[in-house]
Write a structure and sequence with these properties.
- The protein is mainly beta and 489 residues long.
- The chain has a single domain (6-482), classed as YVTN repeat-like/Quinoprotein amine dehydrogenase (Methylamine Dehydrogenase, Chain H, 7 Propeller), CATH 2.130.10.
- The protein has 6 helices and 35 strands.
- The strands form 9 sheets. Strands 2, 30, 31, 32, 33 and 34 form a 6-stranded antiparallel beta sheet that branches.
- It starts with 5 loop residues before the first helix and ends in a 7-residue tail after the last strand.
- Mean pLDDT is 92; it is low at 1-7.
- Bound molecules: fe (ii) ion (FE2).
């Protein structure tokens, strides 16, 4: 199952086709990039890390899902108006074994090992370390939500081993790829979904919440029992609360645990099932409130804050199963456009929830904001969208949404150009929330090359500069910008 999919293989061969952006980047590059369109702002200083599958193949075999390719970190270091690029694979057991063997040796979210049941029976899913990357507590870590993070050298991107936070994590406890850092305390709040045992009614499942301090130690944790395995990818963080929403998606764990099926095979949409909400008070590490919302699918959150007794959070919620299910077979999708942007107001005391709909704003994905405002009131939300510019398939533009007025502006990246997640990078002397830059990896399907595009966050309609790589970087997931300049000697 999932091996050598003819769809991707043939599409990679076609000119100007979006699917070529999934092709692997086998070479590990390192060097200054002097081919720049425009001028890199002198007050843009720091390192832009980004994670994603570096290849979709092991030898001639193809991983069965986009989520299953081995993690590769890209680092773009901006210093004194110049840019340095480096990419390096995370040396996970999956990467090392598959590369040495020239074939797929590990199971994944949508990948089985060739050889049927004997090859897959009771074999665990690989930790690909391919979903996000974060600099926190003087540690650079690559994350995959089905396992533990891998620590990397921030200057060389060399893999240093699994990060277990001084024993706070074990091989039996997972950590998500969407930890968030409270800018006031410096603590990272993260979570994991774990199997903790076998009870009379089946597997015992928990939501574990982690509070990681500036020393990189899990200082506090709490364990919340769950009745079934949820779809939980991200959460909302305020100064005092963590907000979790369990989407109307179900999994069956028996087949994936035994090795007869993949998790992707068992994923089902229960569009009659309400979204379940849990609010955790981070001061007591206890559940403060639970509530239900109409059925839907929530993948990513924007920023969240507290206003009186309410948690106010912006998020992308889709009721379009067809659009979301495109993720299940992304190699042959026709269209992936994300979902509509909502603002929810969840009352911690009463459990009452109100919502507003940014109905005029384009649908999209990968919400981003000025991380210096995480958990506090913020005005601007940035995300990627698929505008009607003659470029089919998926995200080709940036949207800057003013959440106070509902007005927005867009930056169209142009024909045949596809953008990955856009991140906000504050300028060295930033004086306002949107005083900074928006950074995106933009893949040009016509040339099969990638640029790191720099926009002025105050006025993103016009490009400031683009760092033109001599190669492409495959489509990826999440990144992190730090104002620390990392370069190897
Ligand atoms: Fe994500």
């Amino acid at each position: 199952m999932g091996l050598v999919e003819p769809g991707l293989k043939s599409m990679i061969g076609q000119q100007r086709d979006f699917h070529r952006g999934f092709a692997g980047l086998e070479h590990e590059h390192s060097g200054w990039v002097d081919d720049v369109r425009g001028k890199i702002p002198p007050d843009l200083n720091g390192t832009f890390f980004r994670n994603g599958p570096g290849t979709m193949k092991a030898g001639e075999q193809q991983y069965g899902h986009w989520f299953d390719g081995p993690g590769m970190i890209s680092a773009v270091t901006f210093v004194e108006g110049r840019a340095h690029f480096r990419n390096r694979y995370v040396r996970t057991p999956q990467y090392l074994k598959d590369k040495a063997a020239g074939k797929i040796c590990s199971r994944g979210f949508g990948t089985q090992i060739e050889g049927g049941l004997p090859a897959n029976f009771l074999r665990p899913m690989a930790n690909t370390a391919n979903t996000s990357v974060s600099w926190h507590g003087e540690k650079l870590c690559a994350f995959y939500e089905g396992g533990q993070p891998y620590r990397l050298d921030p200057s060389t991107l060399e893999t240093m081993g699994k990060e277990l936070y001084e024993g706070g994590l074990t091989s039996a406890r997972t950590m998500s790829a969407h930890g968030k850092i409270n800018p006031k305390t410096g603590h990272q709040i993260n979570f994991g979904i774990n199997i903790t045992g076998l009870g009379l009614t089946g597997l015992k499942l928990t939501l574990d919440v982690y509070d990681i301090n500036l020393q990189g130690r899990i200082a506090r944790t709490c364990r919340i029992p769950l009745s079934e395995f949820p779809f939980l990818h991200d959460f909302g963080l305020t100064e005092n609360y963590a907000l979790f929403l369990f989407s109307s998606i179900s999994f069956s764990l028996a087949g994936p645990l035994l090795g007869t099926k993949t998790l992707k095979d068992t994923m089902g949409y229960r569009m009659g099932q309400p979204v379940q909400g849990i609010i955790v008070d981070l001061r007591t590490m206890r559940v403060a409130q639970t509530f239900e919302l109409p059925p839907g699918i929530v993948v990513h959150f924007g920023n969240s804050c507290e206003v009186g007794d309410e948690i106010v959070t912006d998020l992308i919620q889709s009721n379009d199963v067809q659009n979301f299910s495109g993720l299940g077979d992304v190699f042959s999708i026709d269209r992936l456009t994300g979902g509509p942007i909502y603002r929810y107001r969840c009352n911690v005391k009463t459990g009452e929830v109100r919502h507003e709909f940014y109905c005029h704003a384009p649908h999209g994905e990968f919400p981003a904001w000025n991380r210096r405002t995480t958990g506090c009131r913020s005005k601007f939300l940035y995300y990627v969208a698929a505008l009607d510019n003659g470029t089919p398939y998926t995200f080709n533009a940036l949207v800057k949404l003013d959440t106070a007025s509902g007005t927005y502006v867009t930056r169209d990246h142009g024909r045949d150009r596809y953008t990955s997640e856009t991140l906000f990078a504050p300028g060295s002397r930033a004086s306002s929330e949107d005083d900074g830059y928006l950074l995106s990896f933009v893949y040009d399907a016509a040339t099969h090359l990638t640029e790191i595009v720099i926009l002025d966050a105050r006025n993103p309609e016009d490009e400031i500069a683009a760092v033109k790589l001599s190669h492409h970087v495959p489509f990826g997931f999440h990144g992190h910008f730090t104002d620390q300049v990392f370069l190897s000697p």
